[in-house]
Design a protein that fits this description.
The protein is α+β, with helices and mostly antiparallel strands and about 290 residues long. It contains 6 helices and 13 strands. Strands 1, 2, 3, 4, 5, 6, 7, 8 and 9 form a 9-stranded antiparallel β-sheet that branches. It has a 4-stranded antiparallel β-sheet with strand order 11-10-13-12. The longest helix is centred in the N-terminal third of the chain and has 72 residues.
C-alpha cells in the first residue's frame, strides 16, 4: 500500500509539473505573439508617419519641377532671361529651404543655374559661342531685384557634364510624344559650386526652342538635419537611403550629420544594421527609409 501511495504521489507530482510547464509554455508563446503583434503595429504606424514626413520634404521638389515645366513650355522661363527667372523662381525657392539650386539646361550645353547664397541669390549662365564658352555670374539681393556683383569669363573647354542631364533626356526620348516623363533622382554626388554632396531631381521636356532639362539640388546636409529630428519612438531609429543602400541621413545625434567628405568620396555612409523589429518602405523618388526599434 505504501508503495502504491508513493507511486500515485509521484505520478501526481509529475502531472502537476507537466501541466505547469505546458501552461507556462503556452503563456510565453501567447505573450511573445502579442508582443510581436504590438511591435509590428508600432512599426507600421510609425512607418506611415515617417513616410508622410519624408514626402513633405521631397514632394514639393517634384511639384516645383512640374510647375517650372509648365512655365518653360509656355516660354515664361528661358535659360537666358535672368530677370524672368528671378521673378518666377526666387519666390518659390524661398519657400523650399531644402533646395539649394535650380538648373535650366539644354542639350547643346547652355545652362542657367539659380543658387541660394547666405545673403542673396546667384545666377550663373553658360552659353556656347563657337568653340568657346561664355560664363556669366551675377549676385542678387534677397528679393532678386538688385544686382550686387557680376563677373564674366570665356573658356575654351566645355563645362563639366552634369549626372542628371543624360538620364532625363533619355527618359524624354524613350517616352515618345505626348508622354509625361517622371521626375528622376540621382544618387549622392558632389554638387557643383556647393562644395558639399547632395542629390538632384530632374525632368526633361520639349519647349518651343527644343529639349530642356530642369533640375533641383537638395543637399545631404539638409536631409540629415531633417532626419535628425525624426524620433519615431523613444528607442527608435530612422535611416534614409537610396535604393542602392547609400545612407543619406539617420535619426539621432550620433548618426544625424553624415560626413561630406566620406559621402563625396565613396558615395555611401556605412551604418550598422539597426536591431529590433522594424519596417522598410520606398518613398517613390529613388529613396527608401527603414524604421527599427528595440
Amino acid at each position: 500500500a505504501s508503495t502504491i501511495r508513493k507511486s500515485l504521489l509521484l505520478n501526481f507530482a509529475l502531472l502537476i509539473l507537466f501541466v505547469s510547464a505546458a501552461v507556462a509554455t503556452s503563456t510565453l508563446y501567447r505573450t511573445r505573439t502579442v508582443v510581436e503583434g504590438l511591435s509590428q503595429l508600432v512599426a507600421d504606424r510609425t512607418t506611415g508617419q515617417v513616410e508622410a514626413q519624408l514626402h513633405g520634404l521631397f514632394r514639393p521638389v517634384r511639384r516645383q519641377l512640374r510647375v517650372a515645366r509648365a512655365w518653360t513650355q509656355s516660354d515664361l522661363v528661358q535659360p537666358g532671361n535672368i530677370g524672368q527667372i528671378n521673378r518666377l523662381l526666387i519666390p518659390v525657392l524661398r519657400e523650399l529651404p531644402q533646395v539649394s539650386s535650380m538648373h535650366i539646361a539644354t542639350p547643346a550645353g547652355g545652362m542657367c543655374a539659380l543658387t541660394r547664397m547666405p545673403d542673396g541669390w546667384r545666377t550663373q549662365t553658360t552659353v556656347p559661342a563657337g568653340d568657346d564658352w561664355q560664363i556669366r555670374r551675377e549676385d542678387w539681393s534677397l528679393d532678386g531685384k538688385s544686382l550686387l556683383d557680376e563677373a564674366a569669363q570665356t573658356q575654351q573647354t566645355p563645362p563639366p557634364a552634369q549626372p542628371w542631364q543624360p538620364p532625363a533626356l533619355a527618359a524624354l526620348e524613350s517616352g515618345g510624344p505626348g508622354t509625361d516623363p517622371e521626375v528622376l533622382w540621382t544618387g549622392p554626388y558632389p554638387l557643383p559650386g556647393a562644395g558639399e554632396p547632395g542629390i538632384t531631381a530632374s525632368l526633361a521636356l520639349v519647349a518651343e526652342r527644343g529639349p530642356v532639362v530642369l533640375a533641383i539640388d537638395v543637399r545631404l546636409a539638409d536631409i540629415a538635419r531633417f532626419t535628425a529630428d525624426l524620433r519615431p519612438t523613444p528607442r527608435g531609429l530612422v535611416v534614409v537611403c537610396t535604393r542602392e543602400g547609400e545612407v543619406l541621413g539617420a535619426s539621432g545625434a550620433a548618426l544625424a550629420v553624415p560626413s561630406a567628405g566620406i559621402i563625396a568620396q565613396s558615395g555611401a555612409l556605412a551604418l550598422p544594421a539597426p536591431p529590433g523589429a522594424g519596417s522598410s518602405r520606398s518613398t517613390g523618388q529613388g529613396l527608401t527609409f527603414s524604421f527599427s526599434h528595440q
